[in-house]
């Protein structure tokens, strides 16, 4: 008996969905935009973290030693730097490697390279490229290198201060997330109003059928049930459409993101694939809660049973 009751309620709910097709389409469209906005918010958060990690991985400090400083003294400084807990790695670049890299960067036929050929010997000294575990560690590294013991050996310190860039990137990401959150809330409010209106129209459309159900003694749940079933259909269709639209979009933009950041670590497709079940599950629960609560409020207001 209960199974038969449930099947009939589900049948009427499906019929209502297709009977008011254009109203259902409008409701599903706004719900889909809301879910897409939520996904965009999640993906933007992930992309922001990847971007910061990518920028931080490119941060280093180049320490150029005087030409007359021999290799053993440079390597002594290297050992001292490796002893700092803030230091991740220290790469030694010989004067010959520095000269070769200079020629590669500027081109063999450039005026700078030709002018170097007129100078006898190698004008470059040894270089240490220092990388820290975290951007905050570079201040300690610089303080160590400024000590008289090391400062007298160093000709120049070239520190690309990416910390300001990371701060700006975090600020931009934060503002974009706030914007997406505002858009999501706006779509959410619109979705609530449309669901409320859709239920009102559906109640009006079925007013004669509802009157007959009352006359034959149908229970309140039998009358209200199809509206809840319809709300669940809106939920499932909107989340399903979001996946169908978002997945191909991520595949298309993936190569552009990797080229932009210059790293294959930017892989939103893999993130979305790995977390697909949890993302879809949470979205179904969230949207279903929203539509069912709104349907409950709408039926309480417009459906007198």
UniProtKB/TrEMBL annotation:
<feature type="transmembrane region" description="Helical">
    <location>
        <begin position="21"/>
        <end position="44"/>
    </location>
</feature>
<keyword id="KW-0472">Membrane</keyword>
<dbReference type="InterPro" id="IPR003838">
    <property type="entry name" value="ABC3_permease_C"/>
</dbReference>
<keyword id="KW-0131">Cell cycle</keyword>
<dbReference type="GO" id="GO:0051301">
    <property type="term" value="P:cell division"/>
</dbReference>
<feature type="transmembrane region" description="Helical">
    <location>
        <begin position="231"/>
        <end position="257"/>
    </location>
</feature>
<dbReference type="InterPro" id="IPR040690">
    <property type="entry name" value="FtsX_ECD"/>
</dbReference>
<dbReference type="GO" id="GO:0005886">
    <property type="term" value="C:plasma membrane"/>
</dbReference>
<keyword id="KW-1133">Transmembrane helix</keyword>
<keyword id="KW-0132">Cell division</keyword>
<dbReference type="Pfam" id="PF18075">
    <property type="entry name" value="FtsX_ECD"/>
</dbReference>
<dbReference type="Pfam" id="PF02687">
    <property type="entry name" value="FtsX"/>
</dbReference>
<feature type="domain" description="ABC3 transporter permease C-terminal">
    <location>
        <begin position="185"/>
        <end position="287"/>
    </location>
</feature>
<keyword id="KW-1003">Cell membrane</keyword>
<dbReference type="InterPro" id="IPR004513">
    <property type="entry name" value="FtsX"/>
</dbReference>
<comment type="similarity">
    <text>Belongs to the ABC-4 integral membrane protein family. FtsX subfamily.</text>
</comment>
<protein>
    <recommendedName>
        <fullName>Cell division protein FtsX</fullName>
    </recommendedName>
</protein>
<feature type="transmembrane region" description="Helical">
    <location>
        <begin position="178"/>
        <end position="199"/>
    </location>
</feature>
<feature type="transmembrane region" description="Helical">
    <location>
        <begin position="269"/>
        <end position="294"/>
    </location>
</feature>
<feature type="domain" description="FtsX extracellular">
    <location>
        <begin position="62"/>
        <end position="146"/>
    </location>
</feature>
<keyword id="KW-0812">Transmembrane</keyword>
């Amino acid at each position: 008996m209960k199974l038969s009751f449930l099947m009939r309620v589900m049948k009427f709910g499906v019929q209502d969905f297709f009977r008011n097709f254009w109203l259902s389409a409008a409701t599903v469209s706004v719900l889909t935009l809301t879910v897409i906005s939520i996904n965009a918010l999640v993906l933007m958060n992930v992309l922001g973290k990847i971007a910061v990690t990518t920028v931080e991985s490119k941060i280093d400090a180049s320490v150029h030693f005087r030409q007359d400083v021999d290799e053993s003294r440079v390597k002594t400084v290297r050992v001292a730097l490796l002893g700092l807990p803030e230091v991740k790695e220290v790469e030694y670049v010989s004067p010959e490697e520095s000269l070769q890299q200079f020629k590669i960067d500027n081109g063999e036929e450039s005026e700078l390279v030709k002018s170097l050929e007129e100078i006898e010997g190698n004008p470059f000294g040894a270089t240490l490229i220092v990388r820290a575990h975290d951007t905050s560690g570079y201040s300690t590294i610089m303080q160590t290198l400024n000590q008289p013991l090391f400062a007298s050996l160093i000709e120049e310190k070239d520190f690309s201060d990416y910390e300001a860039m990371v701060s700006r990137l975090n600020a931009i990401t934060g503002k974009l997330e706030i914007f997406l959150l505002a858009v999501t809330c706006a779509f959410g409010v619109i979705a609530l109003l449309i669901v409320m209106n859709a239920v009102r129209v559906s109640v009006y459309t079925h007013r004669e059928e509802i009157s007959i159900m009352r006359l034959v003694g149908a229970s309140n749940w039998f009358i209200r049930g199809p509206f809840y079933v319809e709300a669940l259909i809106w939920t499932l269709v909107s989340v399903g459409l979001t996946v169908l639209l978002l997945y191909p979009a991520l595949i298309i933009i993936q190569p552009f993101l990797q080229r932009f950041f210059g790293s294959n670590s930017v892989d939103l497709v893999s993130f979305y694939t790995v977390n697909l079940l949890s993302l879809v599950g949470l979205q179904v629960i969230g949207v279903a809660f929203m539509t069912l609560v709104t349907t409950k409020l709408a039926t309480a207001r417009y459906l007198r049973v």
